[in-house]
Each structure stands twice: as structure tokens, then as C-alpha cells.
């Protein structure tokens, strides 16, 4: 077998094994704040890097990133939370001047396929309010603890001494 062909086959297998695929990108309003959810298919345990950006007036503006430097106007207003297969951008005090095409780009360390990305057009008047269930997903530890402890609370017979 030709060594070049062998290397090409190995790289193809590595690309398929390590790729992070962005599956869905959605946006909603949480009060006056914007939340952009970037869901992805996890095919590796390698560390994940991300970049959220907005394109407006034919210019890309980096909002929050581990890949490149965020722009000053977003640094105090934007943060990102990461959960299993979900990276969420939270942009405080969202106004019509923040409207545009939002992009989520993901890349896994040692991923040879390059960045995976999706974009969504965000217009304030067309955004829906974030669903109650999705708000609970952001901090599920207390909810999980409560649900798991309900059978224990029912089984305990509280007797006053």
C-alpha cells in the first residue's frame, strides 16, 4: 500500500472519530437578555473550544470566544455556560442594535476537520420567550436532588418527640 494513501485513510478515520457536529442553534429572550443555545453532537472527550459572533453591516463581531479575542463592547455583557452537548451564550441588555446573524462555531482539540458552525438570524421583535423547562436545564442539580429525595421524604415517618 502506498504510504500516502495509508496516511490519507488514517486522517479520514481520525476526522470521523473526532468531529464535533453542531446540530441546532436557537435563540430566545429571557427578560431583557438574549440566550443563544448551540447544541452539538459529542463524538470525543477532547476539550471543546467555541466562538459566538454576530454579523451585522457585513462585518463579523466576536461576542465571546475561547478561540479568538472578544470585542470590548460585548465583554461586560456576555458570558457562556457549557453543559453536556450544549453551549449557551447569554447576552445581557439585548436591544435592537444587537440584532444580526449570530454564529456558533465549535472545535474540539486535535480535531482535523476544522470548526463546525451554524448561524441564526436574531431580530428582537421575532424572538420568543425562553421556555420554563429550558431555564431549569441551566441549573438542574437542585432539581435533580429534589426529585431524587422525594421518595425518601415519603418513606420517612416524621414523629415528634
UniProtKB/TrEMBL annotation:
<keyword id="KW-0336">GPI-anchor</keyword>
<dbReference type="InterPro" id="IPR033292">
    <property type="entry name" value="THY1"/>
</dbReference>
<dbReference type="GO" id="GO:0043209">
    <property type="term" value="C:myelin sheath"/>
</dbReference>
<dbReference type="GO" id="GO:0007229">
    <property type="term" value="P:integrin-mediated signaling pathway"/>
</dbReference>
<keyword id="KW-0472">Membrane</keyword>
<keyword id="KW-1015">Disulfide bond</keyword>
<keyword id="KW-0732">Signal</keyword>
<dbReference type="Pfam" id="PF07686">
    <property type="entry name" value="V-set"/>
</dbReference>
<dbReference type="InterPro" id="IPR013783">
    <property type="entry name" value="Ig-like_fold"/>
</dbReference>
<dbReference type="GO" id="GO:0030425">
    <property type="term" value="C:dendrite"/>
</dbReference>
<keyword id="KW-0325">Glycoprotein</keyword>
<dbReference type="InterPro" id="IPR013106">
    <property type="entry name" value="Ig_V-set"/>
</dbReference>
<dbReference type="GO" id="GO:0005178">
    <property type="term" value="F:integrin binding"/>
</dbReference>
<dbReference type="InterPro" id="IPR036179">
    <property type="entry name" value="Ig-like_dom_sf"/>
</dbReference>
<dbReference type="GO" id="GO:0007155">
    <property type="term" value="P:cell adhesion"/>
</dbReference>
<feature type="signal peptide">
    <location>
        <begin position="1"/>
        <end position="19"/>
    </location>
</feature>
<keyword id="KW-0449">Lipoprotein</keyword>
<dbReference type="GO" id="GO:0005096">
    <property type="term" value="F:GTPase activator activity"/>
</dbReference>
<dbReference type="GO" id="GO:0030334">
    <property type="term" value="P:regulation of cell migration"/>
</dbReference>
<keyword id="KW-0393">Immunoglobulin domain</keyword>
<comment type="function">
    <text>May play a role in cell-cell or cell-ligand interactions during synaptogenesis and other events in the brain.</text>
</comment>
<dbReference type="GO" id="GO:0051894">
    <property type="term" value="P:positive regulation of focal adhesion assembly"/>
</dbReference>
<dbReference type="GO" id="GO:0009897">
    <property type="term" value="C:external side of plasma membrane"/>
</dbReference>
<dbReference type="GO" id="GO:0005925">
    <property type="term" value="C:focal adhesion"/>
</dbReference>
<feature type="domain" description="Immunoglobulin V-set">
    <location>
        <begin position="33"/>
        <end position="106"/>
    </location>
</feature>
<protein>
    <recommendedName>
        <fullName>Thy-1 membrane glycoprotein</fullName>
    </recommendedName>
</protein>
<keyword id="KW-1003">Cell membrane</keyword>
<keyword id="KW-0873">Pyrrolidone carboxylic acid</keyword>
<dbReference type="GO" id="GO:0045121">
    <property type="term" value="C:membrane raft"/>
</dbReference>
Amino acid at each position: 500500500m502506498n504510504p500516502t494513501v495509508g496516511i490519507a485513510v488514517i486522517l479520514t478515520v481520525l476526522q470521523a472519530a473526532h468531529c464535533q457536529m453542531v446540530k441546532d442553534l436557537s435563540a430566545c429572550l429571557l427578560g431583557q437578555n438574549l440566550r443563544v443555545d448551540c447544541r452539538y453532537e459529542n463524538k470525543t472527550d477532547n476539550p471543546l473550544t467555541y466562538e459566538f459572533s454576530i454579523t451585522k453591516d457585513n462585518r463579523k463581531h466576536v461576542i465571546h470566544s475561547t478561540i479568538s479575542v472578544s470585542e470590548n463592547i460585548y465583554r461586560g455583557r456576555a458570558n457562556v455556560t457549557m453543559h453536556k452537548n450544549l453551549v449557551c451564550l447569554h447576552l445581557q441588555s439585548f436591544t435592537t442594535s444587537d440584532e444580526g446573524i449570530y454564529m456558533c462555531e465549535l472545535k474540539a482539540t486535535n480535531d482535523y476537520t476544522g470548526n463546525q458552525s451554524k448561524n441564526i438570524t436574531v431580530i428582537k421583535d421575532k424572538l420568543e420567550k425562553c421556555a420554563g423547562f429550558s431555564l431549569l436545564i441551566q441549573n438542574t442539580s437542585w432539581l435533580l436532588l429534589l426529585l431524587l429525595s422525594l421518595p425518601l421524604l415519603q418513606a420517612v415517618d416524621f414523629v415528634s418527640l
